[in-house]
Write a structure and sequence with these properties.
The complex is a heterodimer of chains A (115) and B (115).
Chain A (H helix, E strand, L loop, with lengths): L3 E4 L2 E4 L5 E7 L6 E7 L5 E8 L5 E2 L8 E7 L2 E6 L8 E9 L4 E4 L3 E5 L1
Chain B lengths: L3 E4 L2 E5 L4 E7 L6 E7 L6 E7 L4 E4 L2 E6 L4 E6 L8 E7 L11 E2 L3 E6 L1
Parallel strand pairs in B: 2-11
Antiparallel strand pairs in B: 1-3, 3-8, 4-5, 4-9, 6-7, 7-8, 9-10, 9-11
Classes of the chains: A mainly beta (115), B mainly beta (115).
Chain lengths: 115, 115
């Protein structure tokens, strides 16, 4: 299957700092990537849709100024959690839409812990 | 918006038995239904998907059935093995263009296969 790489896999930071998470499609171009969040023992919730060359679209209730998304190329999208707080601690997972066969593949996820 | 209900929340079977997980959805516009397997601390792995123009799809030990009239779809795993133990998620989206990635997930099923 297609490969979506996510980095870092785990990050621990102090409250008030910003954290950047990278999502790369390794063997295909992705004009659209998606960012999900998953709290412990819960399901995945869509946060935002990342569009190459344009602004991201955010789901209702997701603060766009807190979760900055940049999709500067066809293979890279980044999510920056700004001024992180303990309640932002979660598992963040990106996914990429392989438009050639319309399947969605997920990265390995980033566990963010804010102290 | 879409609402996906998944049952059971936990499922325990003996190695070699079959496992069935069921999902229902609410939005008749949904036409793409993937199933994901997630192991602890990892991102979801696509195991099979089905589109609304198909009633059943099979891939070796895994099969998915879709009843669009009743708005439900099911995952069937035959000859289960201990390595099938994981959390399984169903999902639904409208499909088409970038909408494939805007998935609404079920609550997840913890499958345990006992040797």
């Amino acid at each position: 299957g297609a490969v979506v790489s996510q980095h870092p896999s785990r990050v621990i930071c102090k409250s008030g700092t910003s954290v950047k998470i990278e999502c790369r499609s390794l063997d295909f171009q992705a004009t659209t990537m998606f960012w999900y969040r998953q709290f412990p023992k819960q399901s995945l919730m869509l946060m935002a849709t990342s569009n190459e060359g344009s602004k991201a679209t955010y789901e209702q209730g997701v603060e766009k100024d807190k979760f900055l998304i940049n999709h500067a190329s066809l293979t890279l999208s980044t999510l920056t959690v700004t001024s992180a707080h303990p309640e932002d601690s979660s598992f963040y997972i990106c996914s990429a839409d392989r438009a050639t066969n319309e399947k969605l593949f997920f990265g390995s996820g980033t566990q963010l812990s804010v102290l | 918006g879409e609402n996906v209900e998944q049952h059971p929340s936990t499922l325990s079977v003996q190695e070699g038995d079959s496992a069935v997980i069921k999902c229902t959805y609410s939005d008749s516009a949904s036409n793409y239904f993937p199933w994901y397997k997630q192991e602890l601390g990892k991102g979801p792995q696509l195991i099979i998907d089905i589109r609304s123009n198909v009633g059943e799809k099979k891939d070796q030990r895994i099969a998915v059935t879709l009843n669009k009239t009743a708005k439900h779809f099911s995952l069937h795993i035959t000859e289960t093995q201990p390595e099938d133990s994981a959390v399984y998620f169903c999902a639904a989206s409208e499909g088409g263009g970038t909408s494939y990635g805007k998935l609404t997930f079920g609550q997840g099923t913890i499958l345990t296969v006992h040797p």
